[in-house]
Design a protein that fits this description.
Length: about 350
């Protein structure tokens, strides 16, 4: 953090939210526009612990900064303290507007939401989050996927920002976090949008695409980007590449596959043996690819919007939609044509309209 110049919010502002002001709960850089260069987090030893090399981290953060150039509205960088360290957010929109928090999936980051930041900030105060322990500018202290750590982290973010019942939008495992928060801490948030959450049904494990092609260590990020787009997310039986798949998401996935320690971020790497723990690896598969208990899903009481891509890679969206509608009557469901697992990134114009309409409805 040495290279960053922050200013603390005045204490009286924090006190108005009813929060403890004995230490700064959040700090903010000066507002930025899309054509400015924001500060970069230092390459300290601690910040490198989840990367395979300094060069790899620099490549990921270079992509991160370039991605921010697609944000067309005024925004600022803000850091909020949590029990897992500081969480970074890209913040845009009227400070008096209803807050909306955006949660990326594993190996995702705040600027991947650039299309949502551009549109949703016209109506809401948008907070696009870098998850702690994932690529980006938040502290490299990953919560555990085996307990309620992610929900507790999210609660810290909401409370220490002084937000009252914000809306919440998540994609992939970020959508799973949003779903968990609605189940465990329903009163903390208002409406919930979940795009391709894991755990709704027994998933199809895409081993062939990921392990025989994408996970090959010898392939560089450029080759991986092409294969993640053309091979892993092709339309069924068409033989043609899935052209609507978000290229920037493919780039980020390729860079993280090549340079990021996803095993450490998921808590399945054993530092003592320098090996992946098979038992913990199987538990992660169970967490993300097996069905959540029906009793747990029935505890979801918030108004929700569930979004699937037509070519969802994990399961059949139409079958899952019928199942979830019976279990959770407060959820609306949309299936987006010509989109994959991250439909909100693949077809942002169409999905943004549906999301805004849902969040503004009474």
């Amino acid at each position: 953090m040495k290279n960053l110049h922050f200013k603390k919010y005045p204490k009286q502002r924090v006190n108005k939210t009813g929060l403890d002001s004995t230490y700064p709960l959040f700090v903010s850089a000066s507002p930025k526009k899309s054509d400015t260069t924001s500060p970069v987090v230092s390459d300290s030893v601690d910040n490198l612990k989840l990367y395979k090399s300094l060069q790899g981290r620099q490549k990921i953060m270079s992509w991160y900064e370039q991605l921010k150039n697609e944000i067309e509205v005024d925004y600022e960088s803000l850091f909020v303290n949590t029990r897992f360290g500081q969480t970074h957010a890209i913040v845009a929109g009227d400070i008096k507007a209803k807050p909306v928090l955006l949660i990326p999936g594993i190996a995702g980051c705040a600027p991947l939401w650039r299309h949502q930041i551009n549109e949703l900030s016209k109506h809401f105060r948008v907070f696009a989050l870098d998850i702690v322990g994932q690529p980006g500018k938040s502290d490299p202290n990953p919560p555990s996927v085996f307990n309620d750590d992610y929900s507790n982290w999210f609660q810290d973010v909401v409370q220490n920002l002084g937000l009252h019942k914000p809306h919440c939008i998540g994609v992939s495992t970020g959508a799973t976090t949003a779903m968990d928060v609605a189940i465990l801490k329903s009163g903390l948030i208002d409406r919930v949008v979940m795009c391709g959450p894991t755990g709704l049904a027994r998933a199809r494990l895409p081993f062939h695409q990921w392990f025989s092609r994408a996970m090959a260590k010898k392939k560089d990020a450029d080759v991986l980007e092409g294969e993640l787009t053309a091979s892993s997310f092709s339309k069924p039986r068409s033989g043609k590449s899935f052209g609507s798949f978000d290229r920037q998401l493919a780039r980020g996935m390729a860079l993280c596959t090549r340079f990021y320690r996803v095993d450490k971020s998921l808590g399945i790497y054993n530092e003592k043996t320098s090996r992946i723990s098979l038992l913990k690896g199987l538990r992660v598969i169970g967490k993300f690819f097996f069905t959540v208990e029906k009793k747990r899903l029935k505890r979801f009481k918030n108004q929700g919007l569930l979004i699937f891509g037509e070519y969802e890679v994990l399961y059949n969206p139409k079958k899952v939609a019928k199942k979830i509608k019976k279990l959770i009557p407060t959820i609306d469901i949309e299936i987006i044509n010509d989109a994959g697992h991250a439909a909100i990134y693949d077809q942002p114009e169409e999905v943004n309209k549906k999301v805004i309409s849902f969040l503004q409805s009474k």
